[in-house]
Structures are given as structure tokens and as C-alpha cells.
Amino acid sequence: MLKLYAMFLTLIFLVELVAAIVGFVFRHEIKNSFKNNYEKALKQYNSTGDYRSHAVDKIQSTLHCCGVTDYRDWTDTNYYSEKGFPKSCCKREDCTPQRDADKVNNELIGIFLAYCLSRAITNNQYEIV
User: Fold this and answer.
1) Count of CB atoms within 10 A of residue 46's CB?
2) Which ranges does the record mark as transmembrane (predicted)?
3) Domain presence at residue 15
4) pTM score > 0.70 for this model?
5) Angle, helix 27-43 to helix 110-122, in steps of 10 degrees
């Protein structure tokens, strides 16, 4: 019984190791895929409550961000031309969706900051002692 448990534990470890290696090897493709899909979801955003719009709202309200890189990403969408920024872009709870840029979150998404940090590290842009 103990050997079976050790085999399963080893198998789980190997699966995690393979997943980490594959994630590292394909990190650029994964990042580009996330970015392209998020940009596509922004372009197709509407307030009717479909799953893409709900996902965009959830990401923006959870991460306190607006758009893919900043709030200017919304200016190319049909939703912005009709109604302005979505409510999930608001900094404050009592905010109403407006075209006023100072009332929306304009921080970058943490994923992209982490990507920049990892790229700086992998490009050896630090001093080795």
C-alpha cells in the first residue's frame, strides 16, 4: 500500500514537472494567446451579460485595471463609442460609466508586469556578482 502511494506521489510530481517545463517553453505563445483573447473579448464586449463580457468585468474589477494594458484600449470598441467605459473600470464604488479618463482604473495588469520582470531576468539585464 505504501509503495502504491509513493508511485502516485511520484506520478503527480512528474506531471507537475512536465507541466512546468511545457509552460516555460511555450510562455511566449501562452502570453500572446491570453493577450489576443482578452483583446478579442474587449472588442466584443456588451452589457447584456454574455460569458465574455462577464469575464472581462470580473478581471477588471478583481485586478483593479481597465483594458488590456490601460484604459485607452476601450476607445477602439463599439461599447465605448455608445456608452463610454464599463462600470468595471471605475475606481470608486459610486462611479457611473463615463468617458472621463480620470475616473477609471489605469493600472497595468499584474500579469504583464510579471512578464516584463521575467523577460528582464532572462535577458540577463542584471549584474552577476
Assistant:
1) 14
2) 6-26
3) no
4) no
5) 150
